Amino acid sequence: MASPELKTQTKQYWQDGFLNGIKVVSPDEATAHREQLEEAERQIGYGLHYHNKVHTVLRSPYELATHPALLDLVEEILGPDILLYNVTYIIKEPQTAKFVSWHQDLTYWGFDGTEEVSAWLALSPATAESGCMQMIPGSHRQGLKEQVTSDDPDNVLLQSQTIEDIREKDAVLCPLKPGEASLHHGWTIHASQPNTSADRRIGLNIQYITPKMKQTKAETDSAMLIRGQDCFGHYETDAPADEWLPGDAGERLLAATRKLHDITGSPNPV
Ligand SMILES: O=C(O)CCC(=O)C(=O)O
What we know:
With 270 residues, the chain is of the alpha+beta class.
């Protein structure tokens, strides 16, 4: 039975298309998770921004993505059967021009439905200065909007996909302290500005789906059952990381990233 707080949060999610300020771990725990990411980056030799399925090679993102504070809410939204589809770090380095244009997540992922929720968990302060997310309340109810693609090198999105003519005054800033998260619906229109702060802006971006949803843009796809049952079997099984940064972590991340780029029709990473 869901608690009154969970019920209120779920109502807010369906009303606005997002929910902000969910307390997942303490600031100290968030710092410990950030240290694990940065140690992994040192060992692997490059930054882990936008590499797909990091939870299959690192324990820290797996633990955060399966934290009950997130899963209890996701269960209220999606129902008892939950697959973890993807986990990526989205990192804006200090004082850089990288930004995220106004977009809807579900546009390119190839699913045949909308039973998807994204979480964004802060591992450093996400503020107006560091380029936290902004959302347009209620925009998930407008359905899929036209998005124009381009190749702006400063746009974090793979195809720089952009919804034009947004009334920016309607947008709500979603600042987060380390350890807090937001959730958003796959049709909620959102964006973020460059990081003008002196620290990295690090978010852990997580996608949850129901087993019912099918991938329409690839013969096979993979996900991990993290709650309930999968009575459909549409996905091959992703396994959680069970050791510190396996020797083939780089190849596995590249393969997962290539796969998603193929699905979304984006240029492949080298
Ligand atoms: O990290 C950001 O600034 C944007 C992330 C985003 O677009 C998303 O989580 O869907």
